[in-house]
Amino acid sequence: MCGEGVPVITLDGPGGAGKGTVSRLLAQELGWHYLDSGALYRLVGLAALERGISLTDEAALAELARNLDAQFEPSDGGAEPRIYLQGREVTAALRSENCGEAASRVAALGRVRHALLERQRRFRRPPGLVADGRDMGTVVFPDAPLKIFLTASAEERARRRYKQLKDKGMDVRLDDLFKEIEARDARDRNRSQAPLKAAAEAVEIDTTGMEIAEVVQRVLALWRERCAQESV
Ligand code: C5P
Questions:
Q1: Against a cut of 0.85, is the pTM above it?
Q2: How far is residue 74 CA from its own chain's centroid?
Q3: Cα–Cα separations (whole angstroms), residue 118 to 5, 57, 153, 190
Q4: Radius of gyration (Cα) for the chain, nearest Å?
Q5: pLDDT tens digits for range 54-90
Q6: All domains of the chain, ordered by start, with CATH?
Q7: How far, in Å, from the CA of 232 to the mean position of ligand 1?
Q8: Cα dist from 160 to 87, 91, 144, 163, whole Å
Q9: How far is the CA of 136 from the centre of ligand 1 (A)?
């Protein structure tokens, strides 16, 4: 039931459902690696914006994705990793709604997704990986022994993102964020390439009204129930 090789827990779901924070805390708790796959799409989006590459030029964007010179530097205590593009720190820039929007556009392109596939799989190293994204359980790690699909109402997700960005000192409006979240959800769910959906065997957790710590404990309990005796 727990599969072969290095264990992976996948967390998929729409933006703002709490995947990032939950995944980082889980990785910390288990002593595992963490993959923020959304950051890879954001990096491609940012690099494209900076270099003036059109967000519809699939060949050029796939080339950019294949040759992306990016580094992730893990942080302690469940904090966000620092991210570098060609040696320059871009952690804060990546979180802007501009980058999120560009990421969601380049992520709809099959050749870009394909170019990032192996890079994502290389994060699977002992003792284990927590992978956060939209297609972690369906496409990138289909053999993951535990797949989670996190959701929350669009209102709650907009409120969480608002707080996150405000805490970072960014100037944002709640109703704009709500509209952007809905538009991004629709694009992610309706695209033909790896659309956002729960893997058939995923455990769905609606996090509306739940504390982050509660969600982390739920996932840890699921992991221990299913697999801990075999792999820890
Ligand atoms: O998770 P995050 O908001 O950083 O992701 C940004 C965008 O990247 C998403 O809206 C989605 O379009 C895309 N993405 C994806 N597949 C993933 C992770 C992110 O298509 N595994």
A1: yes
A2: 15
A3: 17, 22, 32, 24
A4: 17
A5: 999 999 999 999 999 999 998 877 788 999 999 999 9
A6: 8-225 (3.40.50.300)
A7: 30
A8: 30, 19, 28, 5
A9: 11
